[in-house]
């Protein structure tokens, strides 16, 4: 066999002799054969295995070097190195390429007591295709250094009961040393009882038996638990190592409780977050009475005091445990308990308040999280003299977010393995804030919150991927929610929260499409409603103006010293981050990295994109060193090709990361000349082997909140950005750029871009997106299904039958200005076919083409741009498109880069690739015979279908280079093309799928474009081919002891006595249980008092009614109704007119602002800036605005008119034409300013009679 690595087999000269039947007809030729290299050899390490021993305190330096070779050539012998992550779990070692060698070094401090030995797997991967991998093993053993002092051998927990006499040797203690025996025993114990905080010499004593290596602890007096519960006894221990290590261990001694104090009245407040109504029939806490003793619950008996309703909601066990029944309505409840102590034979009444808050799944899914250090959940909710940390934290959230206290839910407190508390919270002002918003607000106010709450914050936005233990793909934090509650109990407070935790999943979450799209509560943003239609297609129904496919805000603008905070970039080994910006000056575009100073030897992953001298500059650190990539617009010959991009126009930056390789691309590199991308693209490799960008702090766009001088790494050139940013996309996920007017998670930032939007006013219809730059240049980009200069005309829908197609011819005016470096194709379609051609554009080169098509239910772009293979495909592999629903498929190509998008182009609806070519890619389409509906061939001027018939399907709005193509020959207004030929294509897209269909009993026919479905009516389910009633009573829905009765299509709850409501969970007036019923005399007294109060109220009302009209002012109205100071009363004509509520309706009028078309930002009507008021507050604010508007008529004045009629404070409109009184000459022309109806009055009364 041939082998390139054998130099004797790399070239061959074959001499060929050819001869025909005539032996004199002979000729010779020589064929030179050159064997090229194939990557068939793996890198080889020398040696392939090595073992060494180093001290555990070894300096961070090189410890070994492997020599590496690869028998292949070219790229096939270029080898890159990394250490297998599982063999280097804490990333304490690194590998660096020096020449062709692999140099192993120590990156972080080692500790033999933590990991005594390492077996590092060194990987060498060459750059061949396919790549080959070689391995080597380096075993590193750590020798001991005496760096630990002795500690207790066990976790001793001694207890001395209070009131008991002194006891000798009640606890024996021993020691152990984490170092080896050479640096361990014999030990020495010393009792240092005279500490600075408390003198323990009179409390406890210790004797040390050196031979037995035992310390003996004795008590010296009688103790009282109510005076002090715990004593920390300092024991100094020293080892026998060199140098000797000495340290103090504290032995905690607890004083046991004896029931020697009477209990008194007390109160317990319990907060229950009832997640989706699932919680019930479980303990929610225990009754609390004031008692100095705390171990005497066995001596107490608890009895419930309350009415039947409360007894149905809550059960009280004799040990004081409170059980909440499932289905208790959201409300605050109060009841009491009688508590009897058998030792002291006394009974006290103790109060219990239970507040139940219903918590939706959306609130949990949209929650933020913070980890507090050195505090347990019980300590977090415990009420102190200044309140609880829980309420302080909740109050801080409400303040910084600018929402009412009751709009904040802190619903989960979970203790982790470090003894820290993970707090999860959500907030809303209709709708819920996103996690990026709430976490961003906490991050900005981190120091203030920690000071107020009293505990240090370890982490905002809990990240379990921080240790980077995943080998490949990425790492995603997944929120796990359980339906089981978590009880947190302290003495006077209790909380029932949601059981949550964050787990690290070794996948790139943004590209994990293993599960179908579902309508989860957090799928849509900004009040969008998730809908899964009968076609099983999931989509978001968005409020007006939200342009993202999931109702995201896609644009944002910044003023000086502004910023906006969002969720950090997800951890993936291969990532693409892109954004568009428009500005006139340099600044910081985005930053994701540390917000506080970190030690030099700690990992400080970050990514920073700035605009410097008019061009993008990227800094990135994967935790092993910084890489800087800069552009300056110049080519390899130092000639300026691309002008500065701080020019007020929209520009795009793409950051593409493939493990350690990083690329920075400006504007798809469109303006670069052939074969030289250096003016617009630069690439580099991050140092050493780390492949992940591991950031835990918020993503900051448009600036940094902490200031440039507050951290020493990285080095910032700017701290803010003045301009606009839109379409921030990370791994095909579109960021929701929602911001707030408050400084909670954004500052000097606004939704949209006013500098460009002002040029879009009244330019485009509402069926489009207006894109403008700072100079006023604009373009109307039509939504799918619309065409025309301002997108005001609907496109034509066509039904493609069997053997159907449409062909076009480009117009000269359009064809002659095409750009060969970029192309766009778009088509809207609906089908049930699994294969078919949508739209094909051949090239003037016979072998080149582009075609949108369906292959095995997937939307694909087929193409060939002169490559050796005749056909390549880029497909959306995770979406089936033959579901009968409408889809819009779009392709964009700029030189070698191709993007394929469908239905908004997010997540699984997006794919991209870079075509590998030996030259800059160009494509010139044919001027004629590009087609839709089938693959065609033309022979002898006759067009025939070659294959890929897109039959029984519909298409709409076919575009090339964003120019609409006509769908019938009568449409001549297309700027791009004319229809050349149409075959077997019908108008519209009508399917009467349910015609003639008879569904079974209790079923309804649903048309599904070429299919139909007989679905069961509500309350019924399919069983084989029939619909049967759902027995709702199998899953009990009725409350308490109510009886569930199944009915056809529904159910009914039969309520017991004292209960009512659909689920029997509402109480009727019910008797009281226990000993707190009112006596008959007390009831009579209460009734008499109520009767006397009613008489007094009636007399007051009669007195006010009979008050003379002359004693009142004309403008006097009831204070509860007087909401405007310019209300004018007029006398009524006729008798008996008693309309006392004459208000000026113009109080609700206000001059309308100029309306803007739908552009890149949400319209004002939805208030999409993050501060969404409640409806009542919203209306009240409108009224206040109208009240305080000095410009809007009617203008404030006080006028008194002549009274007509008797005893009427309200005048009639006829008074306007009355000449008596002090205001005889009235200017009725002023009424013309009030609108057409008042203009009529001005004409009637001002222009008329004598």
From TrEMBL:
Gene3D superfamilies attached to this UniProt entry: 2.60.120.200, Cadherins, Laminin, TCF3-CBD (Catenin binding domain)
Protein name: Neural-cadherin
One example of a Gene Ontology biological process annotation: cell morphogenesis
Biased composition annotated in UniProt, kind: Low complexity: 1210-1222
Family matches, as InterPro entries: Cadherin, Cadherin-like_dom, Cadherin-like_sf, Cadherin_CS, Cadherin_Y-type_LIR, Catenin-bd_sf, ConA-like_dom_sf, EGF
SMART domains the record matches: CA (SM00112), EGF (SM00181), EGF_CA (SM00179), LamG (SM00282)
Any one annotated GO CC term: adherens junction
Organism ancestry: Eukaryota, Metazoa, Spiralia, Lophotrochozoa, Mollusca
EGF-like domain ranges (all copies): 515-552, 756-792, 1029-1065
CDD domains (alphabetical): Cadherin_repeat, EGF_CA, LamG
SUPFAM superfamilies tied to this protein: Cadherin-like (SSF49313), Concanavalin A-like lectins/glucanases (SSF49899), Growth factor receptor domain (SSF57184)
Function, in words: Cadherins are calcium-dependent cell adhesion proteins.
Signal peptide interval: none
Major subcellular site: membrane
UniProt organism field: Octopus bimaculoides
Domain Laminin G: 553-753, 795-989
Membrane topology annotation: Single-pass type I membrane protein
Start and end residues of each stretch annotated as Disordered: 1210-1229
Residue stretches in coiled coil: none
